[in-house]
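tl;dr need the bound structure. longer version: we got a ligand (S-adenosylmethionine) that a collaborator sent over and nobodys looked at where it sits. i said id run it. heres the input, straight from their email, havent touched it
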Amino acid sequence: MAQLTKNITISELIKQISQLFSEADLYYGHGTANELDEAAWAVHHVLDIPFGCPQAIYQEQVPEQAFDAVQKLAVQRIETRKPMAYLTNKMWFADIAFYVDERTLVPRSPLAELIQTDFAPWVDMSRVTSALDLCTGSGCIGLALATYFPEVHVTCSDISKDALDVAAINRKALGLDKRVKLVESDLYQNLETKKFDLIVSNPPYVAQAVVDALPEEYQQEPDLGLASGEDGLKHVEVILREASDYLTEDGVLIVEVGLSEEALCLAHPQLAFIWLEFERGGEGVFMLTAKTLRDYYSKG
Ligand SMILES: C[S@@+](CC[C@H](N)C(=O)[O-])C[C@H]1O[C@@H](n2cnc3c(N)ncnc32)[C@H](O)[C@@H]1O
């Protein structure tokens, strides 16, 4: 591995780390899309500089201790192939800092944008008092929702006790212990509150064969996080079929299925999915009303 030059500016250090990452042929997709952003993340983290800081800061000299720490972090990233979020135990979601580690998926759902834009025009949030984040992982979606909408009581559920332990760390850090309930549950099975105005979910939705072929960075995430049977639809089929039993009369279901959008549409050509669009990127998120679901599954 190429040696880094000491006594350089922050800007130069970012460029050098970026070069190391490029040579190591890392894979991105857990918060950044390229080696330069990933390098900037490492440097900002160690030096504790906020993103969006004045440009002049980048011309400052890197203190020796910080240089060593950045180098160590960069080497770890290369040798372990762990996503940067696991190495720094931090990930931003909807402009909120979340604690993360290998017990949960690294937050990256486009649902963050929906929360930050008030779910407009799809959901009238002034009428929502209860919400469910199914398959919550770190709790990022449900906890962000509770943060942005102080009137809403949120249940976050996951089958993984490990994931819920991480969600509990985040719930406490955000001061949401009273308003957010964490439930260990195989999809809807153990939910006490039977009716929610809004259900949001980023469940596992990747076909097993696709998961097996993913870059090493994704293999570091929990087995339960991505794979959903042979066709990627195992979880979403249950979520769809049972959703109307857990939604209020005018409730709404919003689910991310990513690249499984096509398979889902083929499996349900008569179901009127509304596919949402995002300015900040992301795809494969649909919305359905309780009424549409009741009619489709003949639960009228
Ligand atoms: C794609 S991850 C999403 C995590 C989080 N919502 C996010 O956006 O970062 C899917 C989550 O579903 C959970 N999960 C897998 N199977 C489940 C099941 N049968 N019931 C409930 N949760 C499940 C996993 O433990 C994992 O935390």
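gonna send this back to them w/ a short note. Residues 104-105, 107, 109, 135-138, 140-141, 158-160, 163, 186-187, 202-204, 224-225 surround S-adenosylmethionine (CB under 6 Å).
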